[in-house]
Amino acid sequence: QLVESGGGLVQAGGSLRLSCAVSARTFSAWALGWFRQAPGKDREFVAAVSWSGGSTYYKDSVKGRFTISRDNAKNTVNLQMNSLKPEDTATYYCAAQVPGRQVEMQSEYDYWGQGTQVTVSS
C-alpha cells in the first residue's frame, strides 16, 4: 500500500514537500517514482529514485526545482518541490516497481498510491 500526503494550494514560486508512505517489508528492494496528471492530460513521469537511492531521474521541466529522496528506514519516498509554477498543478502519484525496469514508463510500475492534489496559483 502506498499513501501520499503533503499536497495543497501554493502560490507560484512557493514550495511543497510530498511524502509517500509504503507499507511493505520489501520496500528497500523497490525503485520508486512520482507521476502527475493534470486535468485533461495523460499521466506523466516526474521523478524516480533507485532502490539504493544512489540514482535519481527527473523530467526535464522539473530538473533543478524538484528533488526526490527516499528513507529506507522509514519506508518513505519524498518529493521536494521548489519554485513551483502553475503548470505543475496536477494530482501527484507515487509508484513502486521491481528494479531493472524503465523508470519513466508508468506501465513498468507494479503498485500505485491514490494521489495527492497540488495546485499552484499564479
What does this structure look like?
With 122 residues, this protein is mostly beta strands. Helices cover 0% and strands 48% of the residues. The chain has strands spanning 2-5, 8-11, 16-22, 31-37, 44-49, 56-58, 66-71, 76-81, 90-97, 111-112, 116-121. The strands form 2 sheets. Strands 2, 4, 5, 6, 9, 10 and 11 form a 7-stranded mixed sheet that branches. It is globular and about 40 Å long. The model has no long low-confidence stretch (mean pLDDT 94).
Give the CA-based shape: globular
Number of helical segments? 0
Sheet of most strands: 7 strands, mixed
What is the CA-CA span between the terminal residues? 34 Å
| Range of strand content | over 45%
**Residues in helix, %:** under 10%
Q: How many beta-strand runs?
A: 11
Query: What is the average of the pLDDT values?
Result: 94
The Rg value, from CA coordinates, equals 13 Å
Order of helices and strands: EEEEEEEEEEE
Low-confidence stretches: none
Category from helices, strands and their pairing:
mainly beta
Can you tag this structure with a few keywords?
122 residues; mainly beta; 7-stranded mixed beta sheet; 4-stranded antiparallel beta sheet; 48% strand
Tell me the layout of helices and strands:
Elements: E1 2-5, E2 8-11, E3 16-22, E4 31-37, E5 44-49, E6 56-58, E7 66-71, E8 76-81, E9 90-97, E10 111-112, E11 116-121
Parallel strand pairs: 2-11
Antiparallel strand pairs: 1-3, 3-8, 4-5, 4-9, 5-6, 7-8, 9-10, 9-11
Concise account of the structure shown:
With 122 residues, the protein is mostly beta strands. 0% of the residues lie in helices and 48% in strands. The mean pLDDT is 94.
